[in-house]
Design a protein that fits this description.
Blueprint: H1 8-28, H2 32-43, H3 50-67, H4 73-96, H5 99-118, H6 127-144, H7 148-154, H8 160-184, H9 190-213, H10 219-242
Helix pairs in contact: 1-2, 1-9, 2-10, 3-8, 3-9, 4-6, 4-8, 5-7, 5-10, 6-7
Length: about 240
Amino acid sequence: MLSFPLGPVEAIAVFLIAVSAAAVQSVAGFGLALVSAPLLLLIHGPFVPGPMMAGGLVLTCLILIRDHQHVDVSGLTYSLIGRMIGTVGAAGFLLVASDATFDLAFAVLVMFAVILSAAGLEPRPNRKNALIAGSLSGLMGTISSIGGPPLALLYQNAGASRLRGTLAGFFLVGSIVSLMALALVGRFGPEEIVLSVFLAPPMVLGFWLGGPLRTRMSDRAIRPMVLGLSFVSGMTVLLRVVF
């Protein structure tokens, strides 16, 4: 029988991190893994990437139910095709990567995601760009659970509701595909399922807390906080690998 691997203090810390990150995603449409994955990796490595994605499916479903009428169906279709391509490449990497190599790739992808989000680029949400963004998201999401920034960059000027709805649809299908790939390469088994179940309640609580914040807090107000915390967390993981 599997035992829960965290002590009380670690479990409380993980719960609070997950609630905060879920509230961010409920407001901004992305940010769950960008905020929480580096911190969870430092507390207990097996949380990333599988349990982070599996637990996040609860939040994704709630956001999609709330914002489903704003989904960009055409862009979603092409981005999901790209997700499949990126996922295959990521699965191949995970099949041969050591723990140190994984941590290094994770830290680099976190900081790359932050740079993408802060770059100020404004790509048009057409089919070609959706395919490219989906591929990047599949690669990044399957390795690190952080797949939101490429799509968020693509839909940054489409309106908050369209961004949240389209990303939720993408995360729902894309995360399921990535979890299947992780299971095939031995990165999502019984221990990861236990951790996924633990993450589900804070996802619901974070969604609930994020509801009233949607109308009171702008994306501009929350973005610097998300990016700053994410960059520091990614740098911490990188320094742990190097030293």
